Amino acid sequence: MAVNKSNQFCKRVFDFTCATIILVLLIPLFILVALAIKMTSPGEVFFKQQRIGRNGRIFWMRKFRSMVPNAVNMGAGMFVDDDDPRITAVGKILRHTSLDELPQLFNVLRGEMSLVGPRPAPLHHLDKYDAKQWQRLSVRPGVTGWAQVRGRLALYWPERIELDLWYVANYSLWLDLRILLETLPVVLSRRGDKYKDDYKEADPFMKL
């Protein structure tokens, strides 16, 4: 079932409702993380970066800051490895647990992202899609997605695009619920992380 207008509306209502509930429940955690970042490293609590949204629209994706200020202009730039010296002590915990991704719930509320969908790609990917691959941009990018629960970093970029296209073509609310339920075990087990060295050769941008 493709994501038609009716499906898009139902998906948007589901996203907004769930994101609101999750954010309310996680207010204490957000406060603790924000305090930990401010107390251990100078700079802003949040990091934002432009990414490709639905239909190619550009938006600012938000994360908790896990690196030193202005890290993108230091060292290896956007390339980040686990032992990167630019990652702060608190940032290591945030990245290990994927807590740094939680502020994307605000992107969901704003309608820029969905809870489930293809992960938002960096801007330099925009002119690399062919007509078929462009279909992954027909839906809002997700906080998690089918490719993330099927392999994460173990997948090369073309493989992830194929999984994203399968998701778009086979969308259903039940599929979104399945992906959401599978996300936590995948994150906790860090499934796919052992393939990071191979992944670097395919695409130098980590944690897309």
Q: Structural class of the helices, strands and pairings? A: mainly alpha
Q: Outline the biggest β-sheet.
A: 2 strands, antiparallel
With helices defined by DSSP (H or I, 4 residues minimum), what is the helix count?
A: 8
Strand content: 5-15%
Strand adjacency order, main sheet: 1-2
Structure explained in plain terms:
The chain has 208 residues and is mostly helical. The chain has one domain. The chain has helices spanning 5-25, 27-40, 89-97, 104-109, 146-150, 157-169, 173-189, 196-202; strands at residues 46-52, 58-64, 114-116, 142-144. The strands form 2 sheets. It has a two-stranded antiparallel ribbon. Strand 1 (46-52) and strand 2 form a beta hairpin. The chain starts with a helix and ends in a 6-residue tail after the last helix. Mean pLDDT is 84; it is low at 194-208.
What's the short story on this structure?
The chain is mainly alpha-helical.
Essential attributes:
208 residues, single chain, 44% helix, two-stranded antiparallel ribbon, mainly alpha, 8 helices, two-stranded parallel ribbon
